[in-house]
Amino acid sequence: MASENKMGTMPEGKLIVTMSFPIMLSMLVQALYNIIDSAFVARISEDALTAVSLAFPVQLLMIACATGLGVGMNALLSRRLGQHKQAAADAAAMNGIFLSVCFWLLFAVLGLLLGRRFIAAFTDVPAVAEMGAQYVTIVTAASCGVFLLFAAERLMQATGNTVHHMVTQLIGVALNCIFDPLLIFGLGPFPALGTAGAALATVSAQIIAMLIGFSINIRFNRDIHLRLRGFRPDKTILCEIIRIGLPAAFQQSLLSLLTICINRILMSFSQTAVNLYGVYYKLQNFLYMPVYGLNNALIPIVGYNFGAGRHDRIHRVTRLALLLALGIMAAGTLLFEALPVPLLRLFDASDTMLAIGVPAIRLIALSFCLAGASVILCGCMQGLGKSGASLAVALLRQLIVVVPAALLLARISLRALWLAFPLAEAVGLAAALVLYRRVTKRLSP
């Protein structure tokens, strides 16, 4: 008789930590690519930092789509492996890879046709527009490194290969750190390419990591068999992957839409204000990504125990995840309140940026614990099959409240605008608590 899955037997504290750590690392590594680029290009000029900051929403959107495809492929592949349907599992893997290639080609075409127009919509500074257009064009044209790297990593995750998955991630970031100074500043035999060099460094690192990831899957992953010969796209499988992954992609794409809206508002103040928001967003990823990792680990744990009727474990693991998330966010709040200047100096912040950035970071930091609690409550609701409730909270937090509030508060001052973030998170948490109580009312304690 097969032993019970660890999600039903392992102590809750150990379970949530061991399942969330690889996901946390994966999400942090993805955020590091643009952060590393920004830290280096900030030493060229503030215009260069602006160009990379304006391009960031495009990268967020690609990551959102790649994440959604990965979620759909992972879920379908895991299900087929659990059913011991080898041919169906192989078909799920190959169709997931095919979809990743299709999205790469889509973003490549959109980047080449619309990248320059997208950047121009947010700046009238010719130097910024040119550097931003170069950066967007390169990262979209070579986005195979994003989409296929995600696919290779999800193949490892679905079959339990977390070690090689983390190695692939770390190789990509290490290569980006090496390539950035070489291609941005022109060290040794390399030409000085500025922001274009930052983009080339990022896509080169991602493509090399992607090739390593597929090599590992082909050589060491015995649970799936990747074969191009005889492959034909299967409409049913493609639709199933999209159906499963679409909610995750949509929810994460809200971050990209929020960044675009806030950048548009901040352009009415100054280019420095746009740079500040870009820098802040990259810094806060180091807090939010671990919490999102907890959330992604919590969802299957709750789902498994709901199916098994273990409501006691659902309550306990949710409380533990809440405590961990609040601990991470509380530590982040203290860090941002106490050390805003050193944090901004990581990006070579000017005196002007420091003047508006220190109060901004301290005000936005008031929202961290509120956001952490909302994310975990939404994760529990997703695990219970109530993804609609989770999406409603995400829309409140990241769009419906924060954008109108920012528009209204911007009429008072730039400093007042930043209050929109804790206000939106407070409303989001209130909605999350109400919906969570309704959803969990039927669970016995």
Report on the architecture of this protein:
The chain has 445 residues and is mostly helical. The protein is 83% helix and 0% strand. It contains 18 helices and no strands. Helix 2 (12-41) packs parallel to helix 7 and helix 4 packs antiparallel against helix 5. The longest helix is centred in the first third of the chain and has 37 residues, at 46-82. The protein starts with 5 loop residues before the first helix and ends in a 5-residue tail after the last helix. The mean pLDDT is 86.
Classify the helix fraction into a percent range: over 70%
Q: Secondary-structure element order, as H and E? A: HHHHHHHHHHHHHHHHHH
Number of strands: 0
Subunit arrangement of the protein: single chain
Strand content: under 5%
Spell out the key features of this protein.
single chain; 445 residues; mainly alpha; 18 helices; 83% helix
In short:
With 445 residues, this protein is mainly α. It has helices at residues 6-9, 12-41, 46-82, 86-120, 126-141, 144-158, 162-185, 194-220, 235-266, 271-307, 311-338, 340-345, 351-364, 368-383, 387-400, 402-410, 414-417, 420-440.
